[in-house]
Design a protein that fits this description.
- This protein is α/β, with parallel strands linked by helices.
- It has a single domain (8-253), classed as Spore Coat Polysaccharide Biosynthesis Protein SpsA, Chain A (Alpha-Beta Complex).
- 35% of the residues lie in helices and 23% in strands.
- The protein is built from eight helices and nine strands.
- The chain has helices spanning 21-29, 49-55, 71-81, 101-112, 161-167, 178-187, 214-231, 238-253, and strands at 8-14, 36-42, 62-65, 86-89, 95-96, 116-125, 128-136, 157-160, 195-206.
- Strands 1, 2, 3, 4, 5, 6, 7, 8 and 9 form a nine-stranded mixed β-sheet that branches.
- Helix 1 (21-29) links the parallel strand 1 and strand 2.
- Helix 6 (178-187) packs parallel to helix 7 (214-231).
- The longest helix is centred in the last third of the chain and has 18 residues, at 214-231.
- The radius of gyration is 17 Å and the shape is globular.
- The protein starts with 7 loop residues before the first strand and ends with a helix.
- 37% of the residues are buried.
């Protein structure tokens, strides 16, 4: 008896993203996997975002445009609407590296009965989206390394809906690292996840995210990473977290 094809829920959260949103929407629409629910949660944007959503409405399964309490509140709204077997997040500034990303993920998850797939991401600067300046390799991630500040790249993390049901919502009292805390809860909980790393760039990310905006954001990020670990029983400290930074520099020299 053949298995039913897996379905996806891709959640895109945006706010005043008119400059890049169309590219992200098109990269989902171009996927060669047919069973995709694309959910867009817009925080009542004031620029041209609403017009872009209107122009692409036929290819979008759900569109919500209303004020929210921040990015993680918006992501939770997306989770509440998600119906797919596999759930993932694609930022408005980012896009899938090829038209085959979702089909690759679906096939390996189905063939190996996985709970999650983690992939790599490539970073590009705004002025040249075709040139990658940094390669984040999620293969270095293991659940034990969460204590050292390593997590799989969130836009290239695909997890079964059952995992999200068990883990619950993102914590909205985090400013930067609620995605990190979520990964800690998911991978270090009572049930160990069966996951696999796909050693290739699945998502291209634009440089300049909220967690990379200056020293104050870096301090806040590390504070929240430590909090996330401690709240979930993972032993860590500032020394462990800081050790990762020299290694992260290598990502710029091995794009």
């Amino acid at each position: 008896m053949s298995q039913q094809p897996l379905s996806f829920s891709v959640i895109t959260v945006c706010f005043n993203s008119a400059e890049t949103l169309g590219r992200a929407l098109q990269s989902v629409a171009d996927q060669d996997w047919p069973n995709v629910q694309h959910i867009v949660i817009d925080g009542a944007s004031k620029d041209g975002t609403a017009q872009i959503l209107k122009e692409n409405r036929e290819q979008l399964s759900n569109v919500v445009s209303e004020s929210d309490r921040g990015i993680y509140d918006a992501m939770n709204k997306g989770l509440d609407l998600a119906k797919g077997d596999i759930i993932c997040f694609l930022n408005a500034d980012d896009y899938y590296d090829s038209n085959h990303v979702l089909s690759k993920v679906a096939k390996v998850m189905q063939q190996e009965d996985l709970d999650a797939v983690v992939g790599d991401v490539g970073f590009f600067r705004k002025e040249n989206m075709h040139h990658l300046v940094r390669h984040y390799r999620s293969g270095r991630f293991t659940p034990k390394r969460l204590a050292w500040g390593w997590m799989p790249a969130h836009p290239a993390l695909f997890m079964r809906k059952e995992v999200f049901r068990r883990v619950g919502h993102f914590k909205t009292d985090y400013q930067i690292a609620a995605d990190y805390e979520y990964v800690v809860r998911a991978f270090c909980g009572q049930e160990s996840l069966h996951y696999k790393h796909l050693p290739e760039v699945l998502v291209r990310m634009q440089m300049g995210g909220v967690s990379t905006k200056g020293i104050s954001a870096t301090i806040r990020l590390n504070q929240e990473i430590i909090r996330a670990c401690r709240e979930n029983g993972v032993a860590t400290n500032y020394l462990k977290i800081l050790v990762k930074y020299p290694l992260k520099l290598l990502e710029f020299f091995r794009p």
